[in-house]
Every structure is written in structure tokens, then in C-alpha cells.
Design a protein that fits this description.
The complex is a heterodimer. Chain A is mainly α. Chain A has 13 helices and two strands; from the N terminus they run αααααααββαααααα. The chains are: A mainly alpha, B alpha+beta.
Chain lengths: 327, 559
């Protein structure tokens, strides 16, 4: 099959295969690592016989392939297992509300990053040779250079304690047409700010170098020569051609955001999937870890697929070649 | 043409963002019904009101605490203080503690003890209802709850620890008996518990959540791992009722209107914020009413000019942090080596400088505030010269080559106090001991398997009795004697204390045992915690018990 549809279908067909491999590796790594949740639960004060009994009843003593097959059977039928850190809750009941929280603010961050980064980068490129160029890029590089473990307490102190403008942390939910939305509350402003500003630098710098490259192209000179207005040249010819490679880094940006979520959620009290991942790993909550890794991998693959499709939308040349590049 | 489409898309996104920000501003400026807090404007030309930004609704009489999700709310399964903190407020048992840490009747109105000290008869109150007010608690409910905690299928790690004194407990826990013979229902209001031999601390064990009463109609065959959905909405008997538990976000407790003891809870609501964040910053920003204070912040809070200084309180906690030796493993089977390492540690420096007075140096094993605490016990002194001589006698620093001290950790650098100890050993004895960190599960396994040389450990009281420390951790036959310490003289004293019913004699036996242990140095007791907390001035009656007991019903909030 040719064209976009064929390409998408080929890519989609690979998703389950990759997920299967990811699940095997994650599962094996988890079970082969020393200690398990029975031990953590027992906390060093129980008789070894009791720990053994827990392992026996929970099936932790079965051969790993057998455990894997049992887990896989449950997982594909939608039973993600029971959480150990939230005793009494099913993993699927914990993970999806948390995923939704993470997706919400990351989506806003992603959009804002590009919405600020693209104009800043373009502007900096057009101002090359003046002091405005290094100033703009430098300012955002400054934000990018501050690790979140520093910027979070700093901003909490400044915006919450000193200026009393925002709450320090947490996550407030409002119902908008029956959907629980958290990014509309004041609590969301600080994490969004903290995650957006560092990201802008990367996008802006990349955009700047792309625009500079395009500005040297013959067709830009031609456009100018035929008397088009500056705005039109930049808008129609320069930015459009510079945007193409920018789409590529959107995929990387997403990966960076997801891993950044672990810090920001743990430090800022956001009940998203990042803090869940952090706690699950510490407690050897096998079923939770599996679900988080697989959903994370799937999200990453779909995001990249989306980027590739966007690519085709921006540049028809890509659409036609129909490669089966993997991720 | 394509460009135009792109511009449309970008414009659309920009408009969406502007709308989003607009909605945000509207929502936060008091127009929203379900969030009609203070009207502080987003654009900042007005100075923010005294209540600051639009914080979550503050219910009048609400106590706001920083918390974390309990591992479980099942009383039979909880083995950690974090879970017990909630359980003691939501559930209740035959006995409890008053605020002076005396054991007092709770669901039981009174109890009799047989002359030989092995049979307890509990007379239950007749006005104790479950939270849903559908049924009163009977002796049968207690029998169900106690048997359930011990049942092998329940997989509770605490059942055997707290209930093993009861006649028939071992057979029942092993699945060899169908009934726990030591617990008898005489009638609806009378429960009889028989224990194997007289014990001065059995009643303490009954104050722990393990034997608290649960509603068998909702618990049914739930174990510690499966079928635990009921704990998300438990039907308890305690002074507070769980109104909401939103995983990872908040727990809300509201008073149990039918509570049977005085005083009844006066708080309108207790809210635990579970989503984490920086507790001290939240406290300063008036988002929570109470917070712990860590070593990093203590200095500035101790400063009398700091406005938080007046809200700072410090209290004793019944615990001990120590270095344990694997006494079966050479060279630590040699008492001189252990003493040398013990005497080379300057505990005052650790307690007062490194840990900034948030701990007290430990001379013995039992913490201050614990019954039987021996203030006159000097312990092994800090004496580097004597320590060096002892080590020389034992074979010199060479015998401590390649020694590893094991500690818990998740990849971060080891604690400052542990690094200080290792540095003191290096300076005073010339030995280089390496710190190895393992994550908690593996660490406990290594310690339990005695697969270590030296380990950095802590022990927190389950109940305020010396038996909980000395007998449980240092009797040669105890399954959790991590240092494999064995001294027949100590064993004899501990055995004698177990069944000694005269309090003064019993505590004296424990003090004798403690003295011998400290000299033998299977442990180097380092510090006892003295945690610091900040409490808002309008929160009254908040006591800081040295271990988890039910105490929120004594708290009031003054407006």
C-alpha cells in the first residue's frame, strides 16, 4: 500500500511487537533484580516462613516465564493487576486518572514551548549581528541551565511565600463539562512555567539556526528580488521551510517532558504518572511498573508517529517516499 | 495556499491559549461557584488579600495536614506508622492509650484479669456502633477480627507479632487449627482472651491496630493483598470516619457523630494532602497547619527573630538508631573490636552538630520517655585513646580491612551522620570502612539473613515497654535478633522479666539486661529522635505522642 495510510498502518503494526519486547525486558529486569515486594512489605521483622507464604500465594515463586505469561494474559484482557503501594486499588484505576493529569499539563507545556520558541528563534535569526540575538537566546538558555531541583524551590519561595501570588504546590481539579481538568487552576501555573521556560531555549536555538540556513537560500533571495514584502518573505518562505526540521525535535521534546515529569511531580505534589512511577519503583510494585512502562512506551511511539505524519503535512516530499523508519 | 492553512492553524492555537488563560483568570477571580474563595486578581495590580491566593476551600474547623497515602487501611495488615496514623483515628480496639500513655479501656468498658494473670475478661460497651450506625459491635466481631489477623491466608506480617501470646495462636496461624481457642465469646458483651503465660505487655499489644475491630460484613475474605477495595471506604468504629480517599491527592476525615468516648471530636474535618511537595513552604504559605522540621531548616527556625520560632515544638520519640554488628562474623565476634568501634564515635558531635539537636545522643538502648529508661546508665564513653588500645589488643587496625557497613538508600549519598561515623573510625582508629547502600527490601533481607558485617539500623517502639526493644531485638532466640547476639545471662534476665508481674522488679530486670548488653556492644546505640514540628498558633490541644496513638479528637481550632 502506498501513501500516508499505508505508511501509518505499517507503523501501527509494529507497535504491538515493540511493546511485547519492551514488556519482556521490563518484566525480566524487575524479577531478576534482588528483593521483591514481599520483602519490602515484611520490612525485616517477619519470619522467613511468612515471606515465603506470601511469595507462594502471590505466585512470585513460579518460574519467571510462567509469571510473565500469566501477567500477559491478564494485561491484554485489560486486567493490569493490583497495586501494592495503593493496596486495594486496581492498577488500571490508578494509572489512567494519573496519566490524564500528566498529559494535561504536558500538552500545555508542549504547545507553549513551541509557541514561544518558534517566534523567538525566528526573531533572533532576523536580528543576527545585533545584540538582540544573543540576548534573546541567552535569556532562555539561562532558564534551561537551571536544574528543576533548584528552580522549583526558588520559584516556590518567590511566587508563593514572598509575593503570595500562587499556591506552592498541589493539584486542584475543576469539572468542565464533566471532565476533570487541572490545568485551569492556579496550582498548574508554576509547574507549567517551570517546564516551559527551559524547553524554549532548545526550540528557539534550533529554529534560529534553521532560519539562518533558509535565509541564505537562493529562493529567498529571489523572493526578495521580485519585490515581496519582508513579512511575506519570512512568513511564506523562511519560516515554513525552517519548520520542517523543528517537527522532528517535537518527539524528543516529548520524551524529555515525560522524564522531567518524575521530578516536577514528586517535588510539586502533582498526582501524575511521574510520581507514581517513582513510588512504584521504590516499592517494587511490579504490576504498576509494567503498566507505566508500557503506557509510556506506547505514548512515545504514537507521539513520534504523529510527528512523522505532521512531517508529511508540512512537506509533501516525505509523504511520497513512504519509508518504514522505525520511531 | 498551504502557508495560509498553516497560519490558520497557528492562529487557532494562539486563540485557544488566550481563551485558556482567560478562563483561568475568570475562574480564579472569584466568579466560580464551587471555588468562591478570596478574590485575588491574576494581573497583580491589586495587592493580594490577607488570605493570599485562591487556595482550596477552607472549611471552618478544618485541620489541614501534610500526609502520604497509607500502604493499607486494613488494621490487620498495617505494619508501618504511616498507615497506623490513619487507622487509629478510623478504627478502634478493646484498649487504647490516653494522652499520658496509660493503657485505658476503649471499646471494652472494663476488663478483669484472672489471679494467675493468663485470662483477661473484657466487658464491652453496649453503645459502640459502626460508622454507618447499622449495627453495634459485639464480642463476636472481635473474635472475627482477631482470628482474621492471624489466619494464614490473610498474609499479615503483624498478626503473629502482636497476637502470638494467645493460646492456640501458633496452631491457628499455621493452619493447623480451625479456631483460635484462646479467644472465647461468652456473650455479646463479654470476650475472654487466654494467653500462654502471664505477660506484663500483652495489654499493650492489644492497643495496636492488629486486633482492632472490623466489620465482617464488608471485609469478608479480603486478605492483605487481595480484595482490599473495602479499605477505600471502611466502616470503622473510631472517632473519625473516612469521608474521602482520593489516591495520591487527599484523605478527608470527618467526625463520627456516634462516637462513644469523651471528648468527642471537635474538628469539623481533617484533611491530609497526599500529593507531596514541600511541606515547610506549604506551612509558611498557610496551606497546612502542621509540619515536621528537617535538619536543613532547623537553624533558621531556632533563630529567635524568625517568626516561626514561636510555633516550633520538639518532642521525644520512642526509638533508637544504632550500628549493629554481626556478632557471629569475625572479627566482630570479639567484644574488644566492637567496644573499640563504639568508643571511637563522638555521639555528642553527631547529635548536636550534624543532626542539629533533632536527636539526643544515646547511652543505652531504651529511649528517654520509655518505661524503664535508665538515666544513670553511662554506656561506653567516647574515648579514642582507649578505643585504639582495645583495637590493638584485638589484633590492630589490620583486622578491619575490607569491612563494609551496610545502610539503606536509594542511590543518593549516604547520610551525613553515617559519613561522620566512618570518618571518626578513620581518624581515631586508622581503619577505613566502606559504606554500601542497598534499597530497603534488599537491605532488610541482608540483615535478616545475617549477610552483613556492620549495619546502620533503627528501631521504633510498637508499644512503650522495654520488652519491645530488649527482648524482641536482643534475646538470643528472637527471630529478629539481627546481630545474632547471644548472652545466656541476658537471656535469663529477659526470660525472668517476661512473666514478672511486679512492675518495679520487672523494670529492674530490664535495666540489668540493658547494662550487660551495652557493655557487650552488639549494638552501638547512637541517637534517639527528638523530632521538631511547627504548629499554627490557632491549633490547640495537639499533643505530640512519642509513637502513633489516636489523638485528633483532642484537637480544636480557634478562629
Amino acid at each position: 500500500m502506498q501513501g500516508v495510510a499505508g505508511y501509518v498502518i505499517r507503523r501501527l503494526a509494529l507497535v504491538p511487537v515493540i511493546l511485547l519486547i519492551v514488556s519482556m525486558v521490563t518484566f525480566a529486569l524487575g524479577r531478576l533484580a534482588p528483593s521483591d515486594y514481599a520483602e519490602i512489605y515484611a520490612g525485616g521483622r517477619s519470619r522467613p516462613e511468612l515471606i515465603e507464604r506470601i511469595r507462594e500465594q502471590r505466585g512470585l515463586n513460579d518460574p519467571i516465564p510462567q509469571q510473565y505469561v500469566r501477567w500477559l494474559g491478564d494485561f491484554v484482557t485489560g486486567d493490569f493487576g493490583e497495586s501494592v503501594i495503593y493496596r486495594g486499588a486496581n492498577v488500571e484505576d490508578v494509572i489512567f486518572p494519573r496519566l490524564w493529569v500528566t498529559v494535561q499539563y504536558n500538552a500545555v507545556v508542549l504547545v507553549l514551548t513551541f509557541l514561544i520558541g518558534i517566534p523567538v528563534g525566528t526573531w533572533a535569526a532576523l536580528k543576527r549581528g545585533t545584540w538582540l540575538d544573543p540576548l534573546a537566546i541567552g535569556a532562555f538558555l539561562f532558564f534551561a541551565s537551571i536544574p528543576v531541583v533548584v528552580s522549583i524551590p526558588l520559584l516556590q519561595w518567590l511566587l508563593a511565600v514572598k509575593l503570595d501570588l500562587l499556591p506552592t504546590s498541589g493539584w486542584e481539579v475543576r469539572e468542565v463539562v464533566g471532565i476533570k481538568i487541572g490545568v485551569l487552576s492556579e496550582q498548574a501555573i508554576m509547574p507549567i512555567l517551570i517546564m516551559t521556560l527551559p524547553g524554549v531555549a532548545g526550540v528557539a536555538r534550533y529554529m534560529r539556526s534553521q532560519v539562518l540556513e533558509v535565509l541564505d537560500q537562493d529562493y529567498v533571495r529571489t523572493a526578495r528580488a521580485k519585490g515581496l514584502q519582508d513579512m511575506t518573505v519570512v512568513g511564506r518562505h523562511v519560516v515554513r521551510n525552517a519548520l520542517l526540521p523543528i517537527a522532528t525535535i517535537m518527539g524528543f521534546e516529548l520524551a524529555a517532558l515525560l522524564s522531567g515529569s518524575i521530578f516536577i511531580e514528586t517535588l510539586m505534589g502533582i498526582p501524575g504518572i511521574g510520581s507514581y512511577a517513582f513510588n512504584s519503583i521504590g516499592s517494587r510494585d511490579y504490576d504498576s511498573i509494567m503498566a507505566i512502562v508500557l503506557i509510556g512506551s506506547a505514548a512515545f511511539m504514537f507521539a513520534n508517529l504523529l510527528v512523522d505524519i505532521t512531517y508529511g503535512f508540512i512537506d509533501p516530499r516525505v509523504r511520497l517516499s513512504g519509508e518504514t523508519a522505525l520511531v | 495556499m498551504e502557508t495560509r492553512r498553516l497560519i490558520y492553524v497557528l492562529t487557532g492555537v494562539a486563540v485557544a491559549i488566550v481563551l485558556l488563560i482567560g478562563v483561568l483568570v475568570v475562574a480564579t477571580s472569584g466568579g466560580d461557584d464551587d471555588n468562591g474563595g478570596s478574590a485575588s486578581d491574576g494581573n497583580g495590580d491589586e495587592s493580594p488579600g490577607p488570605t493570599g491566593p485562591d487556595l482550596p476551600d477552607r472549611v471552618e474547623g478544618e485541620l489541614r495536614l501534610f500526609g502520604s497515602d497509607p500502604i493499607t487501611l486494613d488494621p490487620a495488615c498495617a505494619s508501618d506508622a504511616g498507615s497506623a496514623e490513619y487507622i487509629v483515628e478510623i478504627f478502634s480496639g478493646l484498649l487504647g492509650f490516653d494522652q499520658d500513655l496509660n493503657v485505658v479501656p476503649d471499646v471494652a468498658e472494663s476488663y478483669d484479669t484472672s489471679p494467675d494473670g493468663t485470662v483477661y475478661t473484657f466487658h464491652l460497651r453496649t453503645n459502640v456502633l459502626f460508622h454507618d450506625a447499622s449495627r453495634r459491635v459485639t464480642a463476636g466481631d472481635f473474635k472475627f477480627s482477631i482470628e482474621r489477623a492471624l489466619h494464614p491466608d490473610t498474609l499479615s506480617t503483624v498478626g503473629e507479632v502482636y497476637l502470638d501470646d494467645i493460646v492456640g495462636a501458633e496452631e491457628y496461624a499455621d493452619g493447623a487449627a480451625d479456631e483460635l481457642t484462646g479467644v472465647k465469646v461468652i456473650d455479646d458483651n463479654t470476650l475472654e482472651i487466654t494467653i500462654n503465660e502471664p505477660s506484663a505487655f500483652f495489654l499493650y499489644k492489644l492497643t495496636y491496630p492488629t486486633s482492632y475491630v472490623v466489620d465482617q460484613r464488608e471485609v469478608r475474605d479480603a486478605t492483605c493483598f487481595e480484595g482490599a477495595e473495602w479499605t477505600l471506604n471502611p466502616n470503622g468504629t473510631g472517632p473519625f470516619r473516612l469521608q474521602e480517599w482520593e489516591l495520591g491527592q487527599r484523605i478527608e476525615l470527618v467526625p463520627n457523630d456516634g462516637y462513644y468516648l469523651e471528648p468527642q471530636p471537635s474538628l469539623a474535618q481533617v484533611t491530609y494532602l497526599l500529593s507531596g511537595g514541600s511541606a515547610l513552604t506549604m506551612y509558611e504559605n498557610d496551606e497546612i497547619d502542621l509540619t515536621g522540621v528537617g535538619v536543613n531548616d532547623i537553624e533558621s527556625i531556632r533563630d529567635p527573630n524568625n517568626e516561626l520560632n514561636a510555633e516550633f515544638h520538639q518532642f521525644d520519640s520512642l526509638d533508637v538508631f544504632y550500628v549493629a554488628f554481626n556478632t557471629e562474623e569475625p572479627p566482630f565476634d570479639d567484644v574488644k573490636v566492637r567496644q573499640a568501634l563504639a568508643m571511637a564515635i563522638d555521639k555528642d558531635l553527631i547529635a548536636n552538630e550534624i543532626l542539629a539537636g533533632l536527636v539526643a545522643p544515646a547511652t543505652g538502648i531504651l529511649p528517654p520517655g520509655m518505661k524503664g529508661y535508665n538515666a544513670g546508665l553511662d554506656g561506653l564513653p567516647y574515648d579514642p585513646d582507649a578505643a585504639a588500645v582495645l583495637l590493638e589488643d584485638a589484633g590492630g587496625p589490620g583486622i578491619l580491612e575490607d569491612v563494609v557497613i551496610l545502610a539503606t538508600g536509594r542511590g543518593a549519598s549516604p547520610s551525613d551522620s553515617l559519613e561522620a561515623i566512618v570518618a571518626m573510625w578513620e581518624d581515631n582508629l586508622g581503619v577505613t570502612i566502606t559504606i554500601e547502600q542497598q534499597d530497603s527490601g534488599l537491605f532488610f533481607q541482608s540483615v535478616q539473613d545475617h549477610d552483613y558485617q556492620i549495619a546502620s539500623l533503627g528501631w521504633i517502639a510498637d508499644y512503650p515497654d522495654p520488652q519491645n526493644f530488649l527482648d524482641l531485638k536482643l534475646h538470643s532466640e528472637s527471630p529478629i535478633n539481627d546481630s545474632q547476639y547471644s548472652n545466656s545471662e541476658v537471656d535469663a534476665l529477659l526470660d525472668q522479666a517476661r512473666s514478672e508481674l511486679d512492675e518495679a522488679t520487672r523494670l529492674d530486670l530490664y535495666q540489668q539486661a540493658e547494662k550487660l548488653i551495652v557493655e557487650d556492644a552488639p549494638w552501638i546505640p547512637l541517637t534517639h529522635s527528638k523530632p521538631g514540628i511547627l504548629i499554627k498558633p490557632n491549633v490547640k490541644g495537639y499533643e505530640t505522642p512519642p509513637f502513633v496513638i489516636e489523638n485528633l479528637r483532642y484537637v480544636t481550632i480557634e478562629e
